[in-house]
Amino acid sequence: MRWRAEQIDETRQRITEAAVRLHTTIGPASTTISGVAEEAGVTRLTVYRHFEDQDALFEACMGHWNATNPGPDLEAWRRLEALEARATRAFDELYAWYEARHEELYPIYRDQAAMPGSAQLGMRAQFDGIAAVIVGGGDDVPPRQAAVARHLADFWTWRSLVIERGLTVEEASAAAVSMLLAVGP
Predict the structure, then answer these.
(1) Mean pLDDT, the chain, as a whole number?
(2) Residue-level pLDDT at 8
(3) CB-facing half-sphere around the CA of 172: CA atoms within 13 A
């Protein structure tokens, strides 16, 4: 029985890792169940036995990717009381994290509209949470400042500043901090 359970877990893991490889190379919009099955070395039916729908496969895929690519420590940011210090650390770490993973992230963000609704909501909630930590959370955060923090935390903002405009990660982070502070309360 234990051997069978291990085989099931290993097959599920292979399928999940295959989906991650495809999502981070060709993108979610071009990833099919047949493609995942082929990449994992299983049949389509096997994929469906392990994942009842696209939402379940995306959830497993995102969970695996996030576990192997942990993001910056938001709790460390939260402990910094001053907005400038918190924003500096946050953008330094977040933008460096993007820099290290941008080739894998690009197909995912490019194809975000093709993802199941639950995956899109999860990604939005993740950025909303990051922005809330940067500005200090709470009900007293000015809406403009929260909106600007959310914009600056976005992968596309980092990509625009670093990849498209040629800033270094350090320059982009410093610009993000300046923009956030310029909005003021």
Answers:
(1) 92
(2) 82
(3) 28
Six-digit token string for 71: 């993001």
State residue 127's pLDDT score.
87
Look up tokens 């403009």; give the residue: 144
Ramachandran angles phi, psi of 85, nearest 5°: -65, -45
pLDDT for position 176: 98
End-to-end Cα, the chain, rounded Å = 61
The residue behind tokens 């192997």 is 68
Average pLDDT on 102-117 reads 93
**Residue 92's pLDDT is what?**
98
Alpha carbons 8 and 10: distance in angstroms, whole number: 5
| Positive or negative: CA dihedral 128, 134, 136, 141 | negative
- How far apart are alpha carbons 15 and 11 in whole angstroms? 6
Its pTM stands at: 0.89
Give CB contacts under 8 A, 24+ apart, made by 50-54.
50/8, 50/11, 50/12, 50/15, 51/15, 53/116, 54/116
In whole angstroms, give the CA distance from residue 54 to residue 117. Answer: 10
